[in-house]
Amino acid sequence: MNTNEAKEKLLLYRDPIDDADPQFREALAYAHRNPELAEWLREQAGCYQAIRSKLRDVEAPRDLAEKIIRNQPIRFRMDWTQILKLAAAIIISAGITAASLELWHRGNHPVLQGQEIVVKGEVLDLTCYVAYNWSGPKHASCAMDCIKSGLPVGIKTEDGKVYLLTGKEAHVNDQLADYAAKVVTVRGKETARDGFAQIQVEEIRKF
Amino acid sequence: MSADPEFENLVELYYRDLYRFGFSLTGSEVDATDLTQETFYIWANKRHQLRNPTSVKGWLFTTLRREFLKICRHRKRVAHEPIDEGAQNLPHVPADVVNRIDAQTLLKFLGEIDEGYRAPLVLYYLEDLSYKQIGEVLAIPLGTVQSRIARAKIKLLELLTEAKPRTAA
What is the mean pLDDT of each run of 10 residues along chain B (169 residues)? Predict the structure, then answer.
């Protein structure tokens, strides 16, 4: 090995990261015997450390970690366990809805009539909202499918109150499916059954 | 209290390293921030697919670099000076020359190096990774890693040498 060959090898050497790497052993031994090469190696190491320090001194914005955590997307694992849980939630929810409708027809649980109200809020797919607390733009596509398929649709107002939206005819889902996770204004009669707030929709204003 | 402590811990552990890597690749705070965020969100969606959870840091670096390459493809390509495949002369750059230039100038020089050479060079300087580990992160063979780093390093040292009179003035 001559000095140039040793330099070519040692160009990549980083002290102490590459100490255990056998490819540098012979060139390092050569540098120990050659003062000129040893001096060159010291300068290389100094230059490496100076560049490394400059790059490592770069500071990430202070609020970056907080921002990343705050904006974390909703976790949605498409594995079979999740899909089965979701299917179970939909079946249970559909069952509850069907049973509620049946009871309503029988008049066992009368609806408490209220006044006409106007509320503004996000259109919710109530099944996923109640079961998993899923809402917002990232859940819009799923919510749209659920509402289209006839699952209960709701509205969450700006103050956090949630209403089940019902209509005299079954057009509420059709009208609201495309507005899943979007903000609409609804006018209708506020009612309640067993403490659960509902709005019998008369008018929907979309933006 | 976080709804996802695993995600929060991972962000706290690695966001600085990823940001530095992204900043060194792009030279832009905005791009480095976006790349760092996107990398963690990809991890959040794909974590259950990771075969080896112990190599998560390497996976994050690989992902960030892949996202960086997507940005490069979408933007107008900058013509980089070609890397001299047969470079023989090793430029002599004393540490004090590097110390005199600011980080922005150093990043500008890194930006002049072709993307394929820049990423291994940045990892060579920034992280305590062996050449084998750098190769795993970038999915390139060991020999290619070493030759790319050597050529990119010579190119960077040449740029620093040329910058010497300007900084001394």
Answer: 80 96 94 95 85 84 94 68 58 85 92 94 95 94 95 93 59
Closest residue to A55, CB basis, from B20, B40, B150? B20
Chain A CB contacts of B24 below 8 Å: 55, 58
Q: Is B24 on the interface with A (CB under 8 A)?
A: yes
Q: Check CB contact of B98 with chain A, cutoff 8 Å.
A: yes
Instruction: List, as one string, the DSSP characters of chain B.
Output: --S-HHHHHHHHHHHHHHHHHHHHHH--HHHHHHHHHHHHHHHHHHGGG-S-GGGHHHHHHHHHHHHHHHHHHHSPPP-PPPP-TT--------HHHHHHS-HHHHHHHHHTS-HHHHHHHHHHHHS---HHHHHHHHT--HHHHHHHHHHHHHHHHHHHHHHHHHHH-
ipTM for the predicted complex comes to 0.87
For A27-61, the pLDDT digits (tens) are: 999 999 999 999 999 999 999 999 999 999 999 99
